[in-house]
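Hey team,

Sharing the Pogo transposable element with KRAB domain run so nobody has to redo it. Sequence (394 residues) first:
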Amino acid sequence: MTVHWIDVSTMQRQKCVLACRRLLGRHTYNALAKRIEIIHKDFRIENKVAKITTDNGNNFVKAFRVFGEVDSNDYWPEVGEELEEDDVTVVADIAAILEGGSGDRSAEELYILPKHIRCAAHSLNLVATTDAEKALASSSSYKKTCRSAFGKARELWYKQCRSTHAADVIKTELGKMLVVPTTTRWNSIFDSVSSLVTAIEGKNIELHTVCSSLKLPMFSATDVTFLNEYCLVMKPVAITLDILQAEEKAYMGLLLPVITLCIKKLGGIREKNLKVCEPLLEEVLNGIQARFAAQMEDIDCLLAAAFHPQYKLSWLTAQDNVKYNWVRDKMISIVDMNIMEEKSTNSSSDEDENVENFFNELHTSTKNAMDGAMLVNNYLESPVSQMLPNPSVF
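Structure output:
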């Protein structure tokens, strides 16, 4: 388990490893909840944790659905998530538990967990794998072309990994080795296809020589078209995934702007009249919109982006006026609250009240409201910060 926080003096993201403990037996939702609560209590941070981020595994999701703070965003079912156990609904006899009676769940089995947020990088990886595979079922022509192109590519990758002779031939003809997929890197398939496309475009004759020498099938024109369009469609997803995995710059305020930009980039690809990969494009778009729908309406995510000086609310489209005003009003409320707290702290607690200053609090409240609205509006109307390094390489 790792812990992350913002240094209030530098506003930089900090991190450290909190604990690494083996979990014996089945990794059920209640076993995970128990272990998480123990670690929090051991380090005395049970009242300091704002949110916990985990992957999309069903055991983690259920642990926070049962024991975590109520968050409606956690009730959206993930497609393609790893199912660790049967998701059976258990109705607990709360009255019996509170009375110390024989309810189905004992008091020792009630754990308290903070709010849960699913790992955005893992969700996007599911889009690039599980959701992308749905295109195979939606179009027979796409399925045929996809299997043909990837079949030939996998044979070439397999040869390079399994045969030193094949690796030598590839290195000699192409000048470098091909990038090959690996299960430990989420963007490895995209990187591998991109490497292959670069070889096809820059050294097509040499690649034909490689395939001929190794007795591998040649890539047809349709295969090449598919591989090019695959890279075109998956590039925004791959770049977004790289951005979300950045350790130093992966602030919560980054999530919604970069996902919105990814959707916009994918929408622009629709205008390019794809010949083969249109089913892939539609499934990827649908997957992103479905998996991140909850975050797009989550007030914490919206406020995190709004208060990030590099994004503010500039990423919202012109059709989002209602959401813009709603988030702005929330920002004003937060700023007003901070102003009131600061003035309350600075004011003297033993100030004498008399006829002259009795109504001062009413005037102060009105002035505070004006100050909050003015500060937020000036902040939103000012240009976004250019001082911070932009993580986007779209």
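The mean pLDDT is 84.

Ping me if you want the raw files.
A.
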